[in-house]
Design goal:
mainly alpha, 22 helices, 0% strand, binds iron/sulfur cluster, nuclease, DNA repair, EC 4.2.99.18, HhH-GPD_domain, Endouclease-III_FeS-bd_BS
Length: 387
């Protein structure tokens, strides 16, 4: 069993914006019936942590040779320190797959940088999905993932955790709140109840008091105590590493299960959260609206080995740049590949002000982020009560 101790899950706004806002705009995430029936927490619109497994994108590893020449450290710093220039750094690069250029032709956005984005007509030609062939779609989708891997080489789950048990609990707690809030809350929880046995035997009222800051604390208390009991009674106190077992846990649906599988067990999975749903539709990767169908449709565009990192890249982009209500198109590094360019602010200076987290110069959500994130200029989130 492989455990990624440097990562967690999640996805919210730095301003504390709750998932509810986006969930109400986009299609609500639906968990599998099995999980829905069991888990109070995941029945809420935007459940558990959505970031997916994995660390730096494998897609980044397949970046074109000319990009690799710059060296990973330099790229990371550039991405972190110059948010709005990310587009300049990536969009202007030649396509890693030559024939991918054909897929770019019908795009509305300019081919280079945010400055060019400013002057480009929003939709001079039809979007790529209108008459895009399957082959062109696959190439464009994979190129977007490669570009995002360049922009977020340090992408990781945004829930702090040290073992699979902590991850599954934190992911359940992340429903309807920010990962930051969860990360600020779980240290006290895991200090008092470090194992499934401890939490299974806990006094619910005491757990509720600890979880109060995360909202829906009674339902969440019920879920985490309930799943701890199932772990103890049916799985020997260990978090199972199979999807079919994970979804049997109270509060755990497919999305949460994939988060755990990807991040704690290194097993590829696509995490279809609210960001993922919104972005893949903007990119016209699929017209599906059901999370399970989106998962299948997008999964078919990529090799399985890319799934976990793809989830990270998409979710990070959704949190930082391609927001639900005000996407920062003018500062977007994949504008040339996006049929929805122009849906948000296209003025580069105005778009820069919309950037969040490290792209906007703010702390991330993890109190204990991976070293790669810190090396790239990212900052840890403050502990609870630190202001
Ligand atoms: S809609 Fe999103 S992905 Fe497309 S250009 Fe705007 S910010 Fe970028």
């Amino acid at each position: 069993m492989r455990v990624r101790r440097d990562s967690a899950v999640g996805e919210q706004d730095p301003d504390g914006g709750r998932k509810t806002a986006e969930a109400t705009k986009g299609t609500p995430v639906k968990e599998e019936p099995t999980a829905r029936a069991k888990g109070a927490a995941e029945e809420k619109p935007e459940p558990a942590g959505e970031a997916a497994a994995g660390g730096t994108g494998s897609a980044g590893k397949t970046a074109p040779a000319e990009k690799a020449a710059a060296g990973p450290a330099g790229k990371k710093k550039a991405a972190a320190r110059k948010p709005a220039s990310a587009g300049r750094a990536t969009a202007g690069k030649s396509a890693p797959v030559r024939r991918a250029r054909a897929a770019e032709k019908p795009l509305a956005a300019p081919e280079k940088g945010t400055a060019a984005v400013k002057d480009a007509p929003a939709r001079t030609v039809a979007g790529p999905a209108g008459n895009e062939s399957r082959t062109a779609l696959v190439r464009r989708a994979r190129r977007i993932n490669r570009e995002l891997a360049e922009v977020y080489p340090y992408a990781h789950p945004e829930l702090d955790f040290e073992n699979p048990f902590q991850l599954v609990v934190a992911t359940v707690l992340s429903a309807q709140t920010t990962d930051l809030r969860v990360n600020q809350t779980t240290p006290a929880l895991f200090a008092k109840y470090p194992t499934p046995e401890d939490l299974a035997a806990a006094n619910p009222e005491e757990v509720e008091e600890i979880l109060r800051p995360t909202g829906f604390f009674r339902a969440k208390t019920k879920s985490v105590i309930g799943l701890s009991k199932v772990l103890v009674e049916e799985f020997g106190g260990e978090v199972p590493g199979r999807l079919e077992d994970l979804v049997k846990l109270p509060g755990v649906g497919r999305k949460t299960a994939f988060v755990v599988l990807g991040n704690a067990f290194g097993r590829p999975g696509i995490t279809v959260d609210t960001h993922f749903q919104r972005l893949v539709r903007r990119w016209r990767w699929t017209e599906e609206t059901d999370p399970d169908k989106i998962e299948a449709a997008v999964g078919a565009l990529f090799p399985k080995s890319d799934w976990t990192d793809l989830s990270h890249h998409v979710i990070w982009h959704g949190r930082r740049i391609c927001h639900a209500r005000k996407p920062a198109c003018g500062a977007c590094p994949i504008a040339p590949l996006c049929p929805a360019y122009g849906e948000g602010e296209t003025d580069p200076e105005k778009a820069k002000k919309l950037l969040k987290y490290e792209k906007g110069g703010f702390p991330g959500q993890r109190l204990k982020p991976p070293q790669a994130y810190l090396d790239a200029g990212g900052r840890p989130a403050p502990p609870l009560g630190a202001g």
